[in-house]
Amino acid sequence: MALRTNLKRLLNPRLLLASWPWLLLLAAFAVLRISKGALLLDFYAQATRPFWPGSAQREWLQKAQRFEDQRRIALLEAQLQQQQQHQALQLQKGPWLTAAVISRNIQGWWQQLILGAGALEGIRVGAAVTAPGGLLGRVSSVTPSTARVLLLGDPSSRVAVELQGKRGQGILVGDGTSRPRLAFLDKDVEVLPGDVVITSPASTIFPANLIVGVVQKVDFEATPAPEALIQLSAPVKAIDWVRVR
Amino acid sequence: MAIVLDRSRALFATGLLVFLLTLANPSLVQLNGIPPCWVVLWLLPWAVVEGPAAGATAGIAMGLLLDALQGSNLSSVPVLALLGFWWGQFQKARRPLERSTTLGLLALLGTLLLNGSYALQLYWRAEFSRAAWQTTLAQTLLTALIAPVMCSLLVLFWRRISPQYLQPRSPQ
């Protein structure tokens, strides 16, 4: 049979010895795999620099950030004072950085963004990534000039969240769509479609009180505790610049 | 010597193209937000022309490349190596592969297998993708649609620069 002869020919030691350049190439690819494409990503970032998104949204983002800061100072001064002690550690992490999205994979088996800023700009693994609207995900790996963002919808994403007003705690579980599932920890939880979901102060990864999304549909029959579908508030499809801290 | 150099240059150029297409994910070539499986489209013609050993090797290399480009630790190496080896068996096919729709069918089955392996790995990791069927269908359809056009051209291209298909030069 052709298959057997082919197998026999494959395992011939002389053939293996003679094909050392190909084995060397394979080893190079293995190194590439182990580094998760670090070199390639940096190369990609440089090669596609002319095609990066324009700076209009970035300026808009910075302006929006200033407005947001002013409003917060005016409205939430008292509340901020209370939270200052609690957030002192997180504020020490430094200011928000802005970064361009240079590769986008928001549907399919994995959901990730590649940002055009990396370790050199001060982005670290585990940093929270947000956009106008709310939380997008967290940085899962960095290279000198790029950062890979694990989006909330990725099947391996798990984030501790709560309903605004300290009502129900839960875990936001990505399931490969743009609407992740919120699994509540408590059996009797008061939740209605339209409730706002924010990151939990119990989370060690994310700063507390970042807006994540809105409850769209609740399933009270789910075991062991109710579950809800969350409509994320940051439109990941349309976003070219993000904020990282 | 010149032929070998040409082929390695072509390998490098097409490999670079696969890498750029996979990362850049152009919205022109998407079905419901899902891109075609560029790796399968590259691997099929290469394996069909070069045989099982080169096919499996290229499958491993392309699998490692694809794994490097995504953060989750799903692996495509075993399936792509297997596909490269399987498609290499068609090297000795008597019918002219490049003129038939067989290439499309092979690409369809290959993409189906690759997506199936992703689903299986997610299942083993106790994770879950509600869009699994949607992703699989969209990617399989789009890949199989492009394959007959692109792969037949690539088959002809690889045959042209493959030493085993070159006519021996007549003495003078």
Describe the structure.
- The complex is a heterodimer of chains A (245) and B (172).
- By secondary structure, chain A is α+β, with helices and mostly antiparallel strands.
- Chain A has six helices and twelve strands.
- Chain A has helices spanning 2-10, 13-18, 20-34, 38-47, 56-75, 77-91, and strands at 97-105, 112-115, 128-131, 134-142, 147-151, 158-163, 169-173, 181-184, 196-199, 211-219, 227-232, 241-244.
- In chain A, a hairpin with a 7-residue loop joins strand 10 (211-219) and strand 11.
- The termini of chain A are far apart.
- Helix content of chain B is 69%, strand content 0%.
- In chain B, helix 2 (38-50) runs parallel beside helix 6 (132-161) and helix 5 crosses helix 6.
- The longest helix of chain B is centred in the C-terminal third of the chain and has 30 residues, at 132-161.
- The model of chain B has no long low-confidence stretch (mean pLDDT 88).
Short characterization:
Chain A has 245 residues and is α+β, with helices and mostly antiparallel strands. Chain A is 31% helix and 28% strand. Chain A has 2 domains: 50-151 and 236-244, Rod shape-determining protein MreC, domain 1 (Thrombin, subunit H, Beta Barrel); 158-232, Beta Barrel (Thrombin, subunit H), CATH 2.40.10.
Q: How many helices of chain B? A: 6
Structure annotation, total helices of chain A: 6
Q: Which percent range fits the helix content of chain A? A: 25-40%
* Poorly predicted residue ranges of chain A: none
At CATH's second level, what is the architecture of chain B? Orthogonal Bundle
The CATH superfamily of the largest domain in chain A is identified as Rod shape-determining protein MreC, domain 1
Q: How many domains of chain B?
A: 1
Strand order of the largest sheet of chain A: 1-2-5-4-3-12
Strand content of chain A: 25-35%
Instruction: Round the Cα radius of gyration of chain B to an integer and report it.
Output: 17 Å
At the first level of CATH, the class of chain B is: Mainly Alpha
So what's the oligomer here? heterodimer
Structural class of chain B: mainly alpha
Relative helix content of chain B: 55-70%
Number of domains of chain A: 2
Helix-strand string of chain B: HHHHHH
* Structural shape of chain B: globular
**Largest sheet of chain B, described in full?**
none
Can you summarize the main beta sheet of chain A? 6 strands, antiparallel, barrel
How big a fraction of the residues of chain B is strand?
A: under 5%
Broad shape of chain A: globular
